[in-house]
Amino acid sequence: NEELIWQRTAYHFQPFKNWMNGIVYNSALLTTGPLFYKGWYHLFYQYNPVSAVWGNITWGHAVSHDLINWLHLPLAMVPDHWYDMNGVWTGSATFLPDGSLVMLYTGSTNESAQVQNLAYPADPSDPLLLNWVKSKANPVLVPPPGIGSKDFRDPTTAWFIESDNSWRVMIGSRNGMTGFSLVYKTKDFVEYELLDGVLHAVPGTGMWECVDFYPVSTTGNGGLDTSANGLGVKHVLKVSLDNYMNDYYAIGTYDARANTWTPDDPVADAGIGARVDYGKYYASKSFFDQNKGRRVLWSWIGETDSEQTDLRKGWASVQTIPRVVTFDEKTKTNLLQWPVEEVEALRTDAKDFSHVKVNPGSVVPLDVGTATQLDIEAEFVIDEAELVGTVEADVGYNCSTSAGAAGRSALGPFGLLVLADKDLLEQTAVYFYIGRAIDGSLKTYFCQDELRSSKAKDLVKRVHGSMVPVLHGEKLSVRILVDHSVVESFGQGGRTCITSRVYPTKAIYGAARVFLFNNATEAVVTATSVRVWGMNAASVPTMLS
Length: 545
Ligand code: DQQ
Known about the structure:
vacuole; transmembrane helix; binds 2,5-dideoxy-2,5-imino-D-mannitol; mainly beta; six-stranded antiparallel beta sheet; hydrolase; 3% helix
């Protein structure tokens, strides 16, 4: 059982026990004055209070000053009315101009229909927002004609449209296999009008869960309030596809008057765009952090072991490290995601390894001491002559169907092995792979290989990843957060992100190690810089009751 105990994370958020899934809502509570909510970040999450599997969904609640160290609080909302008897599901908060807070959430009714309900803080002067009142008007929205009673959930944070002095709220739905989002107009969050048409629809995608819709600045102006629009603003539409349990996003233009959103790249983004994270990652949500003027995105990371093992462990799931999300002004085609700077306060014992040459077919151990809680930043270059000289044409590389780190080609794979034991019987590989097309152009892929991450039998192990844009003159760069059973990786400054759950049996406690590796047949890779920090545990004081 030692290995099961070891799997609990040290600085990723998780409850003390039982099941957790998507984030319900999170926000920086600093809208109208520095003292109003005393600067607490609130996290509400989907929680089963009695078991390590999904069910009895209530709202767990925790608060933080820095998004890293958390104070667990009592349950915020439980199923106690006919309109949420089968679960208090995902919702979102909206600040009104007077600084008050409204919460919209999906209730699964006594008949398991999905309706939207309104709640608000019982005592707005309580910075911990311990108690919530459910509106007497509930449910405030029921599935409209033509929409299935179980296909109507997860209201977004509302955004304000000045021209008609009212709010918009988006809700995910579907018709057969066509997923779409409905937009409602409201002035008071009690009465709603369904707008004509759908904001966006994509055949073949199925139900859209946890839709998120938010503006990003294309001119480097940091994070934007959810209601921002106008010049220099684009809108991100994110959907969670429950058929695949993956999150997708595309960047486009929002026309509030026409109630439409048009993807920038109608072909690539129609379906609907790129993965937010290529690994185990689902039901992400963002919020605008007024405190630091940034948009923060985070997400539920489920388990890839068996339910039986989760029951033995007594817990299931963690949350990602919150990420700052911005528009990539260099490529103009993708978002950038990067761990909030607060996580760097946990760094300790920096170790530097510069200009390490990694020859084809070799591994280089890095002496970093205890290697179960790490933050790693590394940069790699390949000799220009090798990039130009290689003739192999293999631009159709696909991380997921490849042999992962064990495959071999002229220019990859190479990168790092984390949570590896000294004999490399267990290893999680984070790597780059460069493919060359017949016309000579190069494509770089960023992948994470779980295939040899554990000797345990009851696991889903895959190679995750995708193409990552690399601009002329850029080194290949990676950041990796290792936290026991979580590996969160960011390629090229967060253009492509991959999260894995891994469950080593040997590479645990003091036996976990880090290596550089290069399994290319031709390329000599130089790790121009590698910085490895140990990470202290975040503090998670005991639950108040
Ligand atoms: N799980 C919630 C739903 C949501 C789904 C229920 C995905 O509200 O659609 O636990 O997180």
